[in-house]
């Protein structure tokens, strides 16, 4: 029997300890637990450790014969242009091990065969490199932190990798307007840390912040954990500088909030996933960092109650609400299986939510959040909940949400669907997918089953569900059950097949489920105009 709400409330009070005052310093530490996202080291067999070549997993994909094969002449040219520090050369010598991390994606699903990584250090170098590649018909893949989740950041065949990590300067910050200008290769967490010291916050935050780059964030129009509060990069990016395949530098590094003079061309690069050009600099408007951050974590017995809680949170926490994240029971069970740390709540609940508030008055915000929790508990919307008493507890609660992607990959891999659907239907997709997996006899606890679990989590505040299927191995039989089922399901609800991760290679052929022929036709026209030789990130996007 579910415990009475009053008993839960006293349990909630019982865990309360003296609170640490929130200051910009401990706010900083609040988010700093997101350490560098490196290669995960799951306990896999030697066979499973090897990522299959993309060309072997998807034999229908063929190398485009229009593209030139790299030769020593090309490499000599690049070395002259960028110096030894700017070139990892696997053409004139065996550099397989050095190039491997650039060829493989974070999900361990896609592996290309590039033999050349270029690391330009300035816009001029990017321009020279692209101009030459365009003239020589060398296909390229722009690469930031390589944390993308749709196979967009690694080559499919032998494309030249243009890695942006050496373009990592913070150029300027206006402490009055909050305008930050950075190179594309600046790591998100580095930019955010720089802003912390000045009382500001980067308007985007995500679990990969220790590795992803601002150029990659803009190129994918990343959404993240606080879009609910700060909005999308389409609104926050004030300007950018980008290089077109023919070497033209598009200087639209505007720092103005308002600018209605002509088409807003920078928007084309936001979310273009490197298909039109390479972003080299970005100016972004950053909000003032809130001096008070509070976090609550609670369990609920149905998705209907999750929706009621969301409505109540919007009504009662209104302007201080900065995140409303959803996690289902399976996601939390799998995180627990991997980490074996103490769960935030006793017992199991079908759903969990994490709420964060960010405001300017700690006590006032805390009271608001507490009375919200008291209200939803007394109305039996929420079954149990905890409120973080300090930054360490807040960080620990966040880890149950942010740790999901990494923990899901523990067994071998994850099929990822990142979708937008009207809220009322959001979780049905997980239930129906789970039923299909069971029907197909693919899901089970021991190693003979390829599927470990079907999981739903995501950004409830943005109607953005992450349907994930954690697997012991990538297997066409699983993919056949999932596709096109998931896409048809989304289409029938007028949803989006890519809410925040983009199209990359994974979603390229499914774009028609969310975009009309006319829209896709216009996109192709734009692609042809900007990149007539098709050298920019081929085989992906459209
Ligand atoms: P990469 O992965 O290197 O590249 C991504 C795409 O952008 C590729 O197509 C690449 O060609 C292109 N690109 C990169 N840099 C440039 C450039 N300078 N110019 C032009 N094109 C470029 N995403 C979200 O939206 N929300 C989340 O909450 C979120 N959480 C994540 C959590 C984890 C643990 C992980 C691993 C990933 C998460 N992601 C999330 C996905 C990923 O982190 C984002 O897509 C991120 O923005 C990618 O940045 P990156 O620098 O790693 O880009
Ligand atoms: C998240 O919200 O955690 C990210 O988008 C990553 C993922 O979907 O796995
Ligand atoms: Zn997400």
From TrEMBL:
Organism lineage: Eukaryota, Fungi, Dikarya, Ascomycota, Pezizomycotina
Keywords: FAD, Flavoprotein, Metal-binding, Mitochondrion, Oxidoreductase, Transit peptide, Zinc
Protein name as it appears in the record: D-2-hydroxyglutarate dehydrogenase, mitochondrial
Requisite cofactors: FAD
PANTHER family referenced in this protein's UniProt entry, alphabetically: D-2-HYDROXYGLUTARATE DEHYDROGENASE, MITOCHONDRIAL (PTHR43716:SF1)
EC number: 1.1.99.39
Task performed by this protein: Catalyzes the oxidation of D-2-hydroxyglutarate (D-2-HG) to alpha-ketoglutarate. Also catalyzes the oxidation of other D-2-hydroxyacids, such as D-malate (D-MAL) and D-lactate (D-LAC). Exhibits high activities towards D-2-HG and D-MAL but a very weak activity towards D-LAC.
Cellular component, GO annotation: mitochondrion
Species this chain originates from: Sodiomyces alkalinus (strain CBS 110278 / VKM F-3762 / F11) (Alkaliphilic filamentous fungus)
One Gene Ontology MF term: FAD binding
Subcellular location: Mitochondrion
Family membership noted in the UniProt record: Belongs to the FAD-binding oxidoreductase/transferase type 4 family.
One BP annotation, GO: malate metabolic process
Domain FAD-binding PCMH-type: 110-289
Primary location class: mitochondrion
């Amino acid at each position: 029997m579910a415990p009475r709400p009053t008993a839960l409330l006293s349990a909630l009070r019982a865990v309360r300890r003296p609170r640490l005052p929130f200051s910009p310093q401990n706010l900083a530490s609040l988010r700093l637990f997101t350490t560098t996202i490196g290669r995960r080291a799951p306990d896999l067999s030697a066979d499973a450790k090897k990522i299959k070549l993309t060309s072997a997993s998807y034999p229908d994909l063929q190398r485009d014969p229009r593209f030139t094969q790299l030769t020593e002449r090309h490499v000599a040219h690049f070395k002259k242009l960028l110096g030894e520090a700017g070139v990892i050369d696997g053409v004139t010598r065996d550099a397989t091990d050095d190039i491997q991390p650039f060829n493989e994606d974070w999900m361990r699903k896609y592996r290309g065969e590039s033999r050349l990584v270029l690391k330009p250090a300035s816009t001029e170098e990017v321009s020279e490199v692209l101009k030459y590649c365009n003239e020589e018909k060398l296909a390229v893949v722009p690469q930031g932190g390589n944390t993308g989740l749709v196979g967009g950041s690694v080559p499919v065949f032998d494309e030249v990798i243009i890695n942006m990590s050496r373009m990592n300067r913070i150029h300027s910050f206006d402490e009055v307007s909050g305008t930050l200008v950075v190179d594309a290769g600046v790591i998100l967490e580095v930019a955010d840390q720089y802003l912390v010291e000045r009382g500001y916050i980067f308007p985007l935050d995500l679990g990969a912040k220790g590795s992803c780059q601002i150029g990659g964030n803009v190129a994918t129009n990343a959404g993240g954990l606080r879009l609910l509060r700060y909005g999308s990069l389409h609104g926050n990016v004030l300007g950018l500088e980008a290089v077109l395949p023919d070497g033209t530098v598009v200087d639209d590094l505007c720092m103005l909030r308002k600018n209605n003079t002509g088409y807003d061309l920078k928007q084309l690069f936001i979310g273009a996933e490197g298909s039109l050009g390479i972003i080299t600099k970005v100016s972004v408007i950053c909000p003032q960092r809130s001096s008070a951050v509070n976090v609550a974590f609670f369990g609920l017995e149905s998705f209907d109650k999750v929706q009621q809680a969301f409505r109540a949170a919007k009504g009662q926490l209104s302007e201080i609400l900065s995140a409303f994240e959803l996690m289902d029971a399976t996601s939390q069970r799998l995180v627990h299986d991997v980490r074996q740390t103490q769960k935030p709540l006793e017992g199991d609940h079908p759903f969990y939510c994490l709420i964060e508030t960010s405001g300017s008055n700690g006590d006032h915000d805390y009271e608001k959040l507490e009375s919200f929790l008291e209200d939803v508990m007394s109305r039996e919307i929420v079954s149990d909940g905890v409120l973080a008493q300090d930054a360490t507890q807040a960080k620990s609660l966040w880890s149950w949400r942010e740790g999901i992607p990494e923990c899901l990959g523990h067994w071998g891999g994850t099929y990822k669907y990142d979708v937008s659907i009207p809220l009322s239907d959001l979780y049905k997709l997980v239930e129906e997918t789970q039923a299909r997996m069971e029907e197909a006899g693919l899901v089970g606890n021991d190693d003979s089953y390829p599927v470990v679990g079907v999981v739903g989590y995501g950004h409830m505040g943005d109607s953005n569900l992450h349907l994930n299927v954690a697997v012991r191995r990538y297997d066409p039989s699983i993919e056949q059950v999932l596709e096109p089922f998931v896409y048809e399901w989304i289409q029938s609800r007028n949803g989006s097949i890519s809410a925040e991760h983009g199209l990359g290679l994974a979603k390229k052929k499914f774009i028609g489920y969310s975009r009309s022929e006319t829209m896709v036709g216009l996109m192709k026209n734009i692609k042809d105009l900007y990149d007539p030789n098709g050298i920019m990130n081929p085989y992906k996007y459209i």
